[in-house]
Structures are given as C-alpha cells and as structure tokens.
Task: inverse folding
DNA sequence: CTAAAACTTGACATGGATGTGAGGTTCAAG
DNA sequence: CTTGAACCTCACATCCATGTCAAGTTTTAG
C-alpha cells in the first residue's frame, strides 16, 4: 500500500508517517520512482507507534524499545531495564489519571446537585 | 505564603505558578511591594491544576471548567457539557493507556523469555 | 544601613510531534 | 501524450507549558 492508503487506514497523516520513518520507527520499500510502499502489517505497527506516543514515550524511546525495524535485537539488559522503566511510568500515569478522573467526576457531580461546585478537590500530587 | 514556598510545597516552578496566574487559574494577593501571596489552600489548588494539565486538559479548558478564581459561577449548561466531555476524554485516555500498558508488559515478557520479542502487538487504535 | 536572598516583569528559547506550503516528480487513467 | 491526483523533499510555522536570562525592586537578616 502507498502512504495515502496507510494514512487513511490508520488515521495518521502522511506527514506523521514520514516522520516515523525518519525516526526509524517505520520501514518502507521504495518504488522505482522513489515512492513509499508498505506491507499490510504496517497498519498495526502504526497503531502501536501511536499508542506509545500517546502514552508519553518519545520517538527516540520507542525506537530503542520497539523490536527491530532497523538492526534487530541489540538485547542488552540495559534495554530490558528501559522497558521496565517505561512500563512503570505508564502505570503511574494510569494511577494519576484515575485520580484526575475522580476529580473531574466530582466536579460534574457538584455541578449537577447545587450549581456551585464546593470543590473539595483533595488528593492530588503531580 | 510567598511564591517560593508554594513552589517548594507543590513541586511547580515559580515560573509555572506565574503562568497559572496569567492564565487565570490561580489567584494571589499582592504585598504592598507587589509580591505575590498565597493562602494555604493554594497548595491543593496547584495540585489540581497540575493533575488536570497532566491529564491533557489545556489551561484554557481548565479555566473554563474550574470553579471560580475570577468570576464565580457562570454556570451554563454548556459548561456542564464541557466538563462531561473532558471526563469522557480522560476515561478514553485511561482505557487507551491500559492497552498500551499491556503491550509494554507483553514486550517485557517476550524480552525475558526468548531474546527476540516476536511481537504480536495487536489491538490498538490511537 | 547594607548585603544577600527572594521576588518582579519581559522577552526569548526549547522540545516534540505535527501542520503547511513551495516546487518538483511519479503514477494511473483517458 | 497529457492531465490530475498522489507523492517526493525541504524548510519553516505552530502549539503550550516551561526553562532561562536580564535588569530592576522588595524583603529579610545581620
């Protein structure tokens, strides 16, 4: 598939797909004329990339952590640690987000009951 | 308390606190000489602001959504919707993050077992 | 009174992913 | 062959919370 198709299939802009490639996250084979071609599996790959980006991983981190693309498996224990760290970070992020959600829910509640939102708004540490 | 104290108490930089004020998120009373003073409750307030920022709300949104600071209660139904939207968004974000966490966990697992991470890496839609 | 620490405003810099536009090439279809 | 859509590369713009630096003022402690 060509870049436009992949963009349509993933929701990522063509610009972003080129960027992912530039960052070493996504491979493509070029047509004789120089245009990018992607295997069908690229759709999932892009989904993964976007998820990780949305989770706050930086493209450099993703490159380190994501298997292959370029030079397959430089499996250092350092890398394993890295992965673990990111996992921990994301889990913390989820916990924080949970608290934030509760705060928002509380706001919504107070909003409904009286119109004055007597915000208690406790328990948050960024 | 003065800005330095609040910064120390919250982990936010003085720069950020001034920015929050500039954006209408945080109030202060000025000393005769023009320096900012905060009530004790500001600590919690800043915590809340930071949580919401971390959750991806923009400072403009927070201003809209957070009770008072400036003109208390312009309680339009529009605002209630807004709040609800953000709540929904954050909940979606949590769900996505959950999936991402699982993916990361999978990576870590594969990493431990064999050294080759045969990434299946399914089920993600940004 | 004085020096140091803390604060003030203002402006410019940063990062990271993405948008955007120019100017040119390739591809698919008539 | 021709045309228009899709693509290419480069480069600069944007967003938004923060960092950072400069030059000046206020506060606090000695």
Result:
């Amino acid at each position: 598939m060509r870049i436009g198709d992949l963009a349509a299939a993933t929701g990522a802009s063509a610009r972003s797909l080129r960027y992912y490639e530039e960052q070493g996250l996504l491979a493509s084979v070029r047509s004789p004329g120089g245009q990018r071609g992607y295997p069908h599996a690229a759709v999932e790959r892009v989904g993964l990339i976007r998820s990780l980006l949305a989770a706050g991983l930086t493209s450099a981190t993703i490159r380190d952590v994501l298997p292959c693309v370029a030079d397959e498996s430089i499996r250092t224990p350092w890398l394993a640690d890295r992965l673990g760290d990111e996992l921990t970070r994301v889990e913390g992020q989820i916990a924080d987000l949970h608290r934030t959600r509760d705060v928002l829910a509380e706001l919504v509640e107070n909003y409904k009951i009286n119109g004055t939102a007597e915000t208690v708004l406790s328990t948050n540490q960024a």
